[in-house]
User: Fold these one by one.
Assistant:
Number 1:
Amino acid sequence: MAEACRLLEIWGTAHERGKRYGAGAAEEIRRGTTHYIAQMKGLGLTESALAELVDAYLPMIADFDADHVVEMRGIAEGADLPLAHIVLMNARTELLKLAGRPALRAGLLAERGQDGCTTIVVQPERTPDGVLIHAHNWDWKASCADSCIILRIRGDNGPDILTFTEAGGLARFGFNSAGIAVTGNYLECERDYRRIGAPLALIRRKVLQQESPSLAFAAIYATQKSASNNLALSHAGTGIVHDLECAPDETFVVEPRDGLLVHSNHWLSPIALAKLRETGVPDSPCTFWRQQRAERLLAPHRQIGLDQVRDVLLDTAGTPLSICVPPRASTMTGCTATVASLLMRPALGEMQVAMMPSAGAAYVPYSLTAGQPAISDRITADA
């Protein structure tokens, strides 16, 4: 059974946050970067070639948000690691896909089928206590379970953030003190990787930096991307939920039905399906199963609470190609599993995370406010 994630609290300027982050999570960051550096080398990309690729990519990231680059430099300094390793943690998909080398082109399938996830968002009118629930299963490399953390970011010029992420990443899934939450699911179409765009992980961080749900929406909708992705956006204050199915050059909005949104790893928008070609299903053949299974399990409940959502996230029907995936051999990741299962109630500042839930892990609570359980670890490294 995987251990619960440590919670790290960081604050200050972008560089100060990064340095505190790197110093406080150096062990987890090194474990996480090891996975991807090994994969890059297996595809023929040397350390020097990676550094060269990152140097070429950084100006585009800086155009998207210069503070993201500053924060990543701080993480690298605090963890005593090359900047390229930290950028890799925040743009792993883009860097692996966009390397532009024959060895990588031959190995493009190594990153296909990633983030084969299931998202559930229940609007306030469907919950027993009128509190929005935003939940997610993250399916990825089982080996990543020991290199994830929870970040609590105290914002100097924006909202506070609570995010689950691979150590070294600026964000993956989470919510902020303005009640904005975001999760992401893998999608694929024939338009992917024809141009360079902002890293998907940094788009999620940009969303969580916003005070306004409309600006959070714009951060997803209007940003050029390298590849497809599905981003579920919710706002606890109003109960409004949008699902944004993103192709690299176009975004399609899917609205919840009857107070409920469920999304796995295939395109749902009829407009999207009329304009592009779905190419991800062969690598995620259970996506339609997971979508329908989750909807059918929730359908009998007029009111849907945490217990009902948790039961769906832990469902093993159809295993191993189930909503909750046990560790299984994969030609794409080596060993795939549901690495983490998240339940979030942003209005209450609450997140629950179960690491490797198929092994029986309990959901561990984390809070955006003070009074965190003993597993928390406030970082006090000098900035």
Number 2:
Amino acid sequence: MVWICPLCEQPLVLLERTWACANHHCFDQSKEGYVNLLPAHKKRSKTPGDSVAMINARRLVHDNALYAPLAAQITAIINDCSSVQTVLDIGCGEGYYGDVLTRHHPDLTVYGIDIAKAAVKLAAATYRHHHYAVAGASHLPVDTATIDLALSIFAPINDTELRRALRAGGYFLEVGPAPRHLWELRTALYDEPREHEPSERTRIGLSSIAKGTCNYSRTLDNTLIQALLTATPFAYRGHREKRAVLRTLTYLNTTLSFSWRLYQNT
């Protein structure tokens, strides 16, 4: 296991149902199998991260395979990476992408962290063969140089912590929205929708070795329209009247477009 104590950074060992370090800091393992490694003094709110409604809506979106082409693209990218056995899913949500990876590569060991306790709880209850912790990206509760590949899909990253967790030669795959992601949905919400700014930032200590996009379109029924509105910031953005009209549509054709960049720890 790769977990370390969030208080003193010593390795954690599971003793029955408690994770403990050499300095006697202890963290109980939940009945679902995850561990909470986000100390109260590092929280910005009482319940940080996505709400339960957002998390359940995202599970519905994933269950309907709306993001399956993106998951297939991620799997193909990782297929071309050498010596990947340990994956850290940063901002794992309810665990969808980690599950896709291990269905194609059962030998992978997947660790997932998310700041939202409800998301980690759902992930751990669903994917018992993975390892989950409540934690943020600014202080990864992961031992140094233990991760072969880190994955971030629409999640913030701390470059210093990321590089510390990756082994020499390890990979980081970052996925974000391309300029016209969900363009038709955004057009229906805003008078003047704006394109997403492309991510071209340099990652400290990491070399960019590949990049690309994943683009496709889907017809959303009313259930998926409602789920996307709930699962994303669209739930409280855009014109209220337009949002109400959008919720009544029988279907909507929309574009899904993602950009990805693969880095290597040098």
Number 3:
Amino acid sequence: MYFCVQKLKKEMVEEDSNGYRHILKYTSVFGSVQGLNVIAGLVRNKFAALFLGTAGMGLASLLTVTMNFLSQTASFGLSISAVRQVSAYYDEYNEKKLYHFVGVVRVWCLMAALIGVMLSIIVGYWTLAPAVALTIVGGGEIAILKGSRQLRSLAVIQTITAIASVIISVPLYWKYGQKAILSVINLMALASMIPALLSSYRLYPMRLQFSSQMINEGMGMLRLGIAYTLAALAGSGSELLIRWWLEHDAGLSMVGLYNAGSLLTVTYIGLVFAAMDNDYYPRLSAVQGMQETNAMVNRQMVVLLWLVTPLLTLMILCLPWIVPLLLSSQFLPIVPMAQISAVAMVLKAATLPVAYLTLARGRSVAYLVLETSYFLVFVLLVIFCFRQWGLLGTGIAILFAHLFDFVMIHVYAHHAFGYCLGRRTLYMIGAVLLIVSTALCIALCIYS
């Protein structure tokens, strides 16, 4: 009955499923949720800045990135590869295969969680083991919900997680300061996993069967996921390497400043991009024709550019007032870095919809090469530019790293998939870059 209803709904909206109306609808839904995430993050980081200081925020950043690195290492990319297969069975309306494969995903996620715990203990971060395991299990359930298009459930989960992050972190940081960092990381992982489990189990009740057949059936997902795991490790590993290098070269306070600058632009604006992940990736995976693919990618890019342009412009002009308000006056040195990084987010908005093509087409090795190349360039640029111009240099490094990524992704997509950037989309990219760059020049002239 459930699948009959879903099929009827899909047929009713089929003609507009890849149009601007659909994109705007679900981007607005998840954009609202991500807006709440931004507000929650601002509140959380404001109190973290007050109660932990720059050094405390640097330590929290190091531990969080380490936890992400460990969970990505142990998860084998299941949270990405599972979405693709679940989405395929969902589109076939094959209830029996879908329910069975959900069981396969859960078995593999539980095994990955156990591996994550052991890995955390082996490398000496046993205090992060609970967060690693909970993140892997929760990621598997999120993948199941994404693949089966449970967009409202995903929105509710993200809302609950955003609120819980504030409720958990603020009192603990106020009461215990830096001693609470590990507890906050573990409790936030738990708060993220619980609503994901409840939503997923409501649709697909738990029916675990540990057998050699279940393990063998997950090997294809594992092979696809390994490349994604290595790519994710390149990302979290590069962030960890940069923070370790900054700590060694300039101390924990510099790590805290760099992390705050990244939060204000790369992370918070990145939440707008995350809003499309729940809807765009599964839809793109289902599209095969190149003409339809080109149209979908270009539409998604246009919507993202429309969304980020006013946000980035206002952020660049208002950062000198925003930073003391959201963090504290200790963090004012991050303003030039964050302003330049904001320009890079235009390039990211023009890159990400195209980058998803490699994932949607299952080109795992190509995805690994592209991601690793970007992160290698990113790390080298940050180290070089920081030594030349300090925190300002890290903003310059972020900008040029995204420019490199933009060119590389578009060239590869054109040769591998025949993707073409639409003329109107190209004009819009140029116009948005001009607007945001003008705002940057004004801000640098006024506040220099």
Number 4:
Amino acid sequence: MNEILSVEHLNAYYKKKQILYDISFSMKEGEIVGLVGESGCGKSTLAKAILHMIPKVEGKIVHMTQMPQMIFQDPYHSLNPMMKVGRILEEPLRIRREKNRKEKVLSMMERVGLEEELIDRYPSQLSGGQRQRVCIGVALMQNPGLIIADEPVSALDVTVQAKVLKLLCALNRDYHIAILFISHDLRVVYELCDRIMILKDGRIIEQGKDDEVFFDPKEEYTKKLLSAIL
């Protein structure tokens, strides 16, 4: 598989405070990589840095794909509350001036598990799971090679979480999209990801294949995270 993202010696700052320290990793096409750490360790900062949403960074970030997309934790605040579902999904197509937009919107709704009747509803009229599916659909409309999913199921109940995770797995399989999946929950990451990275205080302290990190952790911090769920 070809490399799709390369991050080398990344440092990131918020105002004058350093948040990330010497972060290096890469991702390949179609790979799902989990990024795990407690709140405040720098996970979201790393996601934003990768997408050039933070001005003060050092190091090297190389994308081998156009239009990488991000799925945020809170789907409600990710969507324009004044737009109906159909218009939200259509917007990327309008920007590119594509034809047959209505058909493509309906096709995408079916792909992400949204009933056609929801096309004329506003985000406030949807459930949390439905809103997150709209966000996933918008991301897919950009034809990305990479999606960064920042705690995409943490605001959902357990049953809905499982359905959204199943959808992400299917999209990864069918579209061969690489996914950087950010979470504080090692159990969820283990079920979904090929590789796992552990972030602590702005540093990647451990990374490896899912089985290696889950069943043979090297760092005490990783063992502590695992002890909380096993």
